[in-house]
Structure formats: structure tokens, C-alpha cells
Amino acid sequence: MYKSEKMKSNSSILIKLFTIQCLVVMCAAQDFDFFYFVQQWPGSYCDTKQSCCYPKTGKPASDFGIHGLWPNYNDGSYPSNCDPNAPFDQSKVSDLISSMQKDWPSLACPSSNGLTFWSHEWDKHGTCSESVLNQHSYFSSALNLKDQVNLLQALKSAGIQPNGQSYSLESIKGAIKGSTGYTPFIECNVDESGNSQLYQVYLCVDTSGNNVIECPVLPHGKCASKIEFPSF
């Protein structure tokens, strides 16, 4: 009887330990359902009361820049800061730095070399995709997506130019969907005069980080029916 109880006790302990290990692995992996791939228009970032500061490398090109590649859940929530033991390490992306400076510039003040921005994006969002992408793969995937999705060309081809004019929100969405095949979410901000302007474009990407997909869920937010596309 004692031996039987001892065996049951040992089995119970093993089950509990196995459960704890599984939970630890799940927490570290932080499975997710899709990515938001977010690009921002620098003219709209800078044309606010807050203004902006160019990177130490100089004024970025007049093109959309990467904001981030963000793991999300289908219910609209998202994981964040998933692995404090895997901080951003510049040496792991050294071969990507020149591309990141070009396509993923920081416009925050004070002027910087981008490392703080990239570190924030990795720590908050990238660590939650470690079950699929390591640090190098995370940044290279975002850069590859930028090459795949030429937002500025899509808009210009539809006659939508960054010239300070206003365009209908639907025409902007239509131009991007016509080019990519997928419906974007448009985020707006306001300029110093309070006018709604094109700020960020969200597209959804599968969990491999390689393929644009139709968004399972869109973020919350509203734009005016006509929005400005400021110059930069």
C-alpha cells in the first residue's frame, strides 16, 4: 500500500513538472496567428506639433519606412516583451545595418543611429516571434517585405502623389489593394492645423514572415474620408 501511494506521488510530481516545463516553453515561444507589417510615411511623422529629427545618417529618402513587424492574435490582442533574456544585439544583424538605415530609419528626437528604435522593436515585438524567427531572420524578413511591397509606387501609379493634396481614403486603399492584392488598414494622424493625413499602412503577413495575406482582424482607428498626403 505504501509503495503504491509512493508511486502515485512520484507520478503526480512528474506530471506537475512536465506541465510546468510545457508552460515555460509555451511562454517562451509565444505562439501567434499573424504579423502586422507596418510602414509609415515620414512626411506625416514630421508634419505634426511634435515634429521630428532626421537620423545621424541624414534625411531619409522620400519613401515609406518600416515601423515594425508585429505578431498578433486573431482576436485583436497581441503578445509583447516575450523574452527579456534575448535583448537586441547589433552584432547579430551587422550585415543588415546599411539596409535598416535606409529602409527602417528612426525619425524620433533626438537624432540617432537607429539602434534604440530597432532595439525597441525587437524587444517588444520581435521576441514574440522567436518560435519562428531568430533576431537576424526577424529584421531580414521585414526588409524583404519592404522590397515586396512598394507602397509609394502603388500610390503614384494611381495618381496619388505626396504633394500635400488630399485624396479619398478609398482611393488610397484601392491603389494599395490593386498593387498587393490585399486590403490594407490605413492609420491617420493630424498635422499642426488638425488635418487628417496618411500616416501608416498596415498589411498582414503569415507566421513565416514571408507572405502577405488578407488580415484576419484590422486595428481600431478612423481617418477622414479625404486625407492629405504631405510631401517629405
Topology:
Layout (H helix, E strand, L loop, with lengths): L1 H28 L4 E7 L1 H5 L18 E8 L24 H7 L11 H10 L10 H14 L2 H7 L8 E3 H12 L4 E6 L5 E10 L6 E2 L12 E3 L4
Antiparallel strand pairs: 1-2, 1-5, 3-7, 4-5, 5-6
Helix pairs in contact: 6-7
Question: How would you portray this structure in words?
Answer:
There is one protein chain. The protein is globular. With 232 residues, the chain is an alpha+beta fold. It is 36% helix and 17% strand. The N and C termini lie far apart (81 Å). It has seven helices and seven strands. α6 (151-157) crosses α7 (169-180). Strands 1, 2, 4, 5 and 6 form a five-stranded antiparallel beta sheet that branches.
Low-confidence stretches: 17-30
Overall shape: it is globular
How does the helix and strand content classify structurally? alpha+beta
The major sheet is characterized as: 5 strands, antiparallel
**Helix proportion:** 25-40%
Count of distinct strands: 7
Order of helices and strands: HEHEHHHHEHEEEE
Q: How much of the polypeptide forms β-strand, as a percent range?
A: 15-25%
Descriptive terms for the model:
five-stranded antiparallel β-sheet, alpha+beta, two-stranded antiparallel ribbon, 7 strands, 232 residues, 7 helices
Task: Characterize this entry briefly.
With 232 residues, this protein is α+β, with helices and mostly antiparallel strands.
